[in-house]
Structures are given as structure tokens and as C-alpha cells.
Amino acid sequence: VDLSDSLMRSIKAQVAVDALKALEKQFKLVEQELTSLQDSLATIMANGIIDPERQAEKYYKEYLNALLKGNKSQLSILSKEVSKFGSFGAKHVRYTFEIDELSTQLNELRKNMVVARIEANQEIPTRFIIDRADIPDRKAYPKRSIIVITATLSALLFTILLLLLQEHLKQLRKSVR
Predict the structure, then answer these.
(1) 42, 84, 138, 159: least buried by Cβ within 10 Å?
(2) CA–CA separation, 115 vs 109, rounded Å?
(3) Are 92 and 49 in contact (CB under 8 A)?
(4) What is the 3-state secondary structure (H, E, C) of 101-167?
């Protein structure tokens, strides 16, 4: 039992260690990708695109006001700002979404790594032995004499029952004739 238990534990530990290595590798890849996306987002933010929805709404309102007023200098400045949203706005939204997704994935990987570490380091046996078997002081079986007496009495009772049934059937046959 002890040998099979230790063998089972070592196999499970090896599988858990391999799974932990794979999780750590995946964690590093996701972390690198997340860092790359954060750098790309920082570059876009350096170009002035912080919150594309609100900024675009603000610039378009100012652009319409300048257009209605006929202010050409303000129109040229605002058209340059609005053109940034064409190239950077969609990237900002995409990077933000991907960063959120990768952050969620990173948290899940972190949780899975904790579980894998626990499984790799655990020493919990797979079988729990409550009491080891030992030789009893006296027999736990009923005595042979009790078995013999019970079997003899049962056979005797069954024989009497069969004889009574046979006599009863004979009497029924005689009464029917």
C-alpha cells in the first residue's frame, strides 16, 4: 500500500510540475504581450489620444461651431486634431480592449499556477488507512457447535413441515374422491 501510494504521489507530482512549467511559460508569454500592448497604448496616448470617445465628441462639437462661425484658422487646427482620431482612435480602443482581456487571462493563469504549485508540493496520501490489519486474539466467527445445532434444528423443522404438508395433501385427495 505504501509503495503504490508513494508511486501514485510521485506520478501526480510530476504531472503537476510539468503543468506548472507550462503555466509559467504561458504566463510569461501573456505578460510580454500585455507589456507590448501597454507600450503601444502609451505611444498612442503620447500623441494626445487619452479618451477617444470624449475627446472626439468635444473636437467634433468645436469643429462644428468653428464651421458655423466660419473661423478658418480654428478649422484647420481642429481638422488636424480630428484626423488623429482616424488613425489613433480605433487603435486606442482595440489596445484597451486587448489589455483588459489579457489582464483577465493573466489573473486566471495566476490562479491556476497557485493550484499547480500546491499540487506539485503536496504530500497528501491518496489512500487513508484508518487501522492496520492485525491478527485477532480470538476468532471473530461463530462457534462451530452453534452452526451445527442451528443447521440440524432447521433441517428437522423443515422435515416436519414437509411431512405435515404431505399428510394434508393425502387427506385432501381422499376427500375429493
Answers:
(1) 138
(2) 10
(3) yes
(4) HHHHHHHHHHHHHHHHHHHHHCCCCCCCCCCCCCCCCCCCCCCHHHHHHHHHHHHHHHHHHHHHHHH
DSSP at 26: H
Whether the per-residue pLDDT at 40 is higher than 80: the answer is yes
HEC string of 56-96?
Answer: HHHHHHHHHHHHHHCCHHHHHHHHHHHHHHHHHHHHHHHHH
Do residues 63 and 82 make contact, with C-beta atoms less than 8 angstroms apart? yes
**pTM for the full predicted model:** 0.54
CB atoms within 10 A of CB 44: 21
- Side chain identity at residue 39, one-letter code: D
pLDDT digits (tens, 9 = 90+) for 123-172: 766 666 667 777 777 777 778 889 999 999 999 999 999 999 999 999 99
Least confident of 25-39, 74-88, 127-141: 127-141
Q: How far apart are CA 19 and CA 106, in angstroms?
A: 16
Angle between helices 72-84 and 52-69 (to 10 degrees): 160
